[in-house]
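Q: Here's a chain of 200 amino acids. Please give me its 3D structure as tokens.
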Amino acid sequence: MNDALAPDRRALVAGQFELITTSLRGCLEIRPRLFDDERGRFVKVFHQAAFASAGLATEFVEEYYSVSRRGVIRGLHFQHPPRDHAKLVYCVAGRVQDAVVDLRVGSPTEGRHALVELSAETGNMVYIPSGLAHGFCVLSDSATLVYKVTSVHSPEHDAGIRWDSAGIPWAVTAPILSERDRQHPGLAGFASPFSYRMEP
């Protein structure tokens, strides 16, 4: 991630993507160009050279999506090293409150979170570097989220922290949760496997 981008600063990459920094170093909101006409919409969500020029990961090796109903919270998820990954997340139907938590030991924002509202209407995305946990809350009747990741899913490295342990002001107080997400450990006392490092 290019450190020259201060929090809340915006940069246009290759004329295709607007990068908006969040309060967590390396975590970006990305806004692509939207092409709307009488037929509908066309959106480019990834361009290897543009992402590389901004210092973002380009080697996405797996892609999947989830469909969730209103009031669902999924998260907060990550994978342990050596199967940790960067992640690009965007909403192709509906609207979600997206949340990211910094788990990197030594980070100036360790333990803090950032929130971005993702929607199909806006077409925006969140770029999440390794060492951050991710989750979301569904704000619409239904929402479809797409994930591009730089390592394949590995059940033995798959992990999470409990949704209500990171001080996130979720849009719902009694969410629909999976049993797995109910049983994640809390952030307090969590022994993180991630270390923070300043990148050039």
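Q: Can you summarize the key feature?
A: The chain has two helices and 14 strands.
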